[in-house]
Specification:
Elements: H1 3-13, E1 18-21, E2 42-45, E3 65-66, E4 71-78, E5 81-88, H2 94-107, E6 111-117, E7 120-131, E8 136-138, E9 141-143, H3 151-164, E10 170-176, E11 183-186, E12 199-205, E13 208-214, E14 229-234, E15 239-244, H4 246-249, E16 250-254, E17 264-270
Parallel strand pairs: 3-14
Antiparallel strand pairs: 1-2, 4-5, 5-15, 6-7, 7-10, 8-9, 10-17, 11-16, 12-15, 12-17, 13-14, 13-16
Bound molecules: 2-oxoglutaric acid.
Length: about 280
């Protein structure tokens, strides 16, 4: 090929903005400074990536905020007030926590609760036991009043009341037997719990992640995709207090897990203000 034809082919393939470097030796550095190696001609396209601002707003799903250190956390503020968490890791020392777990596991009269959801009746995937002067209804099923507190539970209630200066008259005990036991998204906002209920949640045994998500504003039409999230790993012995507007502005759950989990007991102390029915 004479020089003219060779040039024409090159220009046809790489018209305009192409840099052509002929093979000239073992290692060639072009102005990128990168070595090219032996044996071929090298064509370095001179295309530039031009960033164009997207015309639509790109929404990012926020990463969950992990709360795992002792302290008080104001997780949001709204017209309903401040939503606040207080975390006390090692509220119960590990050795003490172990024998408490064993005693509660053996001696609490755990029951299977049957609920009614939008798709019909289902068995709650955990065992529960209710203590309190009045019945407690959630998920369209009622747990009868049970004023006969186990002495260990009374002792734990007293300890929590001393540290928090709150008082409680009821307790929902939950037993998660394995990784597939769970509780789905909900708020503890039954009318009998009053406005801005204070919930003291004490955990024993296996660590499970307590997940929270903020209720979306009306314009999201019930879509939780972009809402703020908080994850609190609840180890044995950890006390978590939820207060202020937490139950009106947030939901929480303990999801199923997909690896072996030993049993976990969770005690949620509450105060019931029974609504008198006329
Ligand atoms: O197990 C937990 O940590 C939470 C339990 C709970 O949300 C509930 O029983 O309402």
């Amino acid at each position: 090929m004479d020089d003219k034809r060779r040039r024409a082919r090159v220009q046809g393939a790489w018209a305009g903005k192409a840099k052509v470097t002929a093979h000239i030796g073992p290692t060639v550095f072009v102005n990128t400074g990168k070595p090219l190696g032996w044996g071929h001609d090298h064509v370095i396209p001179d295309k530039q990536f031009v960033y164009k601002e997207p015309t639509e707003v790109v929404r990012k799903i926020p990463d969950p905020r992990v709360i795992d250190k002792p302290g008080t956390y104001e997780i949001s503020t709204s017209a309903s007030g401040v939503s606040r968490l207080r975390l006390f890791p090692s509220f119960i020392e590990p050795k003490e926590g172990e024998w408490m777990f064993e005693q509660l596991y053996r001696e609490i009269p755990w029951r299977q609760k049957s609920n009614v959801g939008p798709d019909g009746p289902y068995q709650e995937p955990r065992l529960t036991c209710w203590y309190g002067e009045v019945p407690y209804t959630y998920s369209s099923s009622t747990m009868q009043a049970n004023p006969h507190w186990h002495p260990l539970l009374t002792m734990l209630k007293d300890r929590i009341e001393e540290v928090t200066a709150y008082s409680f008259n009821s307790l929902l005990c939950n037993l998660y037997r394995h990784d597939k036991d769970s509780i789905d998204w909900h708020s503890d906002n039954e009318p009998d719990l009053g406005k801005n209920p204070i919930i003291a949640s004490l955990s024993f045994g296996e660590t499970r992640v307590f997940q929270m998500r903020k209720k979306p504003p009306p314009e999201e039409q019930g879509d939780y995709t972009y809402v703020e999230r908080v994850h609190v790993p609840l180890d044995g012995g950890t006390l978590l207090i939820m207060e202020g507007a937490t139950q009106s502005d947030w939901q929480h759950r303990v999801p199923k897990e997909y690896h072996d989990r030993r049993p976990r007991i969770n005690l949620t102390f509450r105060t019931m203000f029974p609504v008198t029915k006329t």
